[in-house]
Amino acid sequence: MHPYYPTPWRGIEGDLSTIPNSANSERRKQQLHARILIADDEPRARASLKELLRFTGHEITLAESGREAIELLNSNNFDLILLDLNMPDLNGHKVMEHIDQYTIDCDIVVISGEATFDHASLALRNGAKDFLRKPYQPEELLRTIDNTLDHRRLKIENKQISQRLNESESLHKFIVNNSPDMIYLLDQEGRFAFINDRVEGLLGYDAKEIIGQHFSKLIFEEDINQANYTFNERRTGDRATRSTELRLNCKINDGPRYFESRTVPIELSSIGIYSVDEDNQKSFIGTYGVARDITERKQAEELIKYQLHHDLLTNLPNRTLFRDRLNMAMAHSKRTGKKLVVMYLDMDRFKIINDSLGHYVGDELLKLVGQRLRSELREADTLARVGGDEFNLLIPEINDIQDARNLAEKILRLTAEPFLIKNEEIFISFSIGISVYPTDGDTKDSLIKHADIAMYKVKNSGKNGYAFYSDRMKSHFAASLDIENGLRKAISTDELCLYYQPQYNTMEEKIVGVEALVRWQHPDKGIIQPNEFINVAEESGLIVPLGEWVMRKACQDMQRWQTEENISLSLSVNISVQQLEMDQFVSKTLAIIKRHNLDRNVLELEITEHAIMQDMEKAIDTLSRLSHRGIRIAIDDFGTGYSSLGYLQSLPINTLKMDRSFVEGIKSKGDNSIVTAIISMARGLNLDLIAEGVESQTQVDQLNSAGCHLAQGFFYSRPLPEDEFLKMVKSQPNSIN
């Protein structure tokens, strides 16, 4: 028994009742709720300390010896031990050595009667946070415990903060290095202070190779001037670089290259970084930037650009690109004084080949013809596919007309050799018309038209040949000119009329729509069918006012049917490629609909695949603008063109009209796989499908069983004048709203 504790409170000086409410103070509330171990062999000393700490709210555990203290420390977690040095079995120094040896996370405050400097110094060296000599003031003990626990709480908080910072830094590093974008920092001199690991996958450099290098090392030579103001950005805010395109150099190795290109296109966003001193003065310290690889986007853009200017079947230039190159060639010829030649090539008997051997063989034949012709032309020559079996050929800078004649004869010899498709030899021939700039025309339209006229001269003379355009050929087209003049008059004097052919829902057995078809009421010849004047209208440009008249008249009739007859049907009107090319076509169409007070979704505009493929870019733009305003779009004669089926997903289409050639081939028993495939494709693309040219019950039954329930054709009705059409509709009450 220690001599210092003859009574239970001996060793604690002062009155406990005078202890301030520090135990309940705000400070104590913020302290760690601690687990405290009291290790003292004197029972009254232990009891005194426990009673004193009862005010603090800490959890107290007692140990009556050094050995018991060690056992408790090994099996429990304590925040603080109040340790006496003089204990008979194991003294306090041994306990501290055990705590240090086994790295036990517990703070130590020594409370001992050993007041010598050596004992205190040894205790502090062994890890004690403080040393109190018995007897002590209660305030002093509580303050020491508070300070020790405060220090421990701060140490724990700092450790947690440091751990969170490390975790955050690791996460940030992981995110940065695994970013799909290249992230970098430049110093004031434009040298890389940091760059993430993406640089290796993007350009082939290890990040360590780039650190310290000037940014110009990575910039493609032609883009260096732009990069000086963007990659090495100094501006901030709205003036900083946003989504600017640059090209970066790939690393060139001595060994095999792993990059398809020496440069990589990127989209760059960057901003200047500044520090602010005590006087609020900004100093430029570097640049932060993010570079995104846009290789795939560029490749997609190039592909789309290519597709918009090329025929997708043969990969030859299309009409749009041909006309652009003809414009440039004419300008060049005008400067140099040299002539150029335009050839119009039309394959003879192609329709017979296509119908007899099938569309696949027809497509393959067109591709082989394009390849064979292209292989024999100069690099400067342009061969374009401008129609189903029609090609245009531009030959710039010819020295003599004989050169054009020689080339035409060469083409005829080339195409006279058989084409092998599916182990079958196919023989073809061409009719070629030739016009020469500037003698046969000084505009691209006149040159193409005159070459076309010369080609028809060959057609009419037995085909398989060539002819140069001459003014004498105009006499052969006198009839066409008469039709053109008469049609021009017919449009202005109201000699035109509309016939209407119903469209049936075969399941509900009712009329759901109608197609407006133009007829010419000639004062001398009577009713003239459209196949006798539409081609002339297209060639002369009259198709535009003719098409506008048809749309205006059809909408006018539909308005009257709705208001006077209580008939409301879907109205289909055919449009031409020339109308699509008009800048005012959309606004004129909307004005006609508004003038006749029709809902926009009543009108459905029909256009052929062939017309769309003449200028895909323009067609997509115009049809999209119409579709966004509620007007429905239909592809007429679907399946007869050579467009890419992929474009059906990008075009704003509502309806496909299956060409009559497929319907004609429907059999009650046999292979209807093409029709079934078209129906399945329309269903997959969520498009309506109308079968054209339906003429028998067998065709209706087969279409119904395959899932096509909209039909149009002579089986139901021929095109009818308006009064007869209305009688038909009224005779079927379920077709009247």
UniProtKB/TrEMBL annotation:
Q: Which PANTHER family match?
A: BIOFILM ARCHITECTURE MAINTENANCE PROTEIN MBAA, DIGUANYLATE CYCLASE DGCP
List the catalytic activities from the record. 3',3'-c-di-GMP + H2O = 5'-phosphoguanylyl(3'->5')guanosine + H(+)
Q: In its keyword annotation, does this UniProt entry include Chloroplast?
A: no
Cofactor(s) the protein needs: Mg(2+)
Q: Taxonomic lineage of this organism?
A: Bacteria, Pseudomonadati, Pseudomonadota, Gammaproteobacteria, Chromatiales
Provide the top EC class: hydrolase
What is the protein's species of origin?
Candidatus Thiodiazotropha endoloripes
Q: What is this protein called?
A: cyclic-guanylate-specific phosphodiesterase
- Sequence ranges assigned to domain Response regulatory in this UniProt record: 35-149
- Reading the lineage from the top rank, the first entry is Bacteria
What keywords were assigned to this record?
c-di-GMP, Phosphoprotein
Gene Ontology BP, a term:
cellular response to nitric oxide
Q: Which residues form a coiled coil?
A: none
Occurrences of domain GGDEF (ranges) = 338-471
Per the UniProt entry, the Enzyme Commission number(s) are 3.1.4.52
Query: Which residues does the record list as 4-aspartylphosphate (modified residue)?
Result: 84
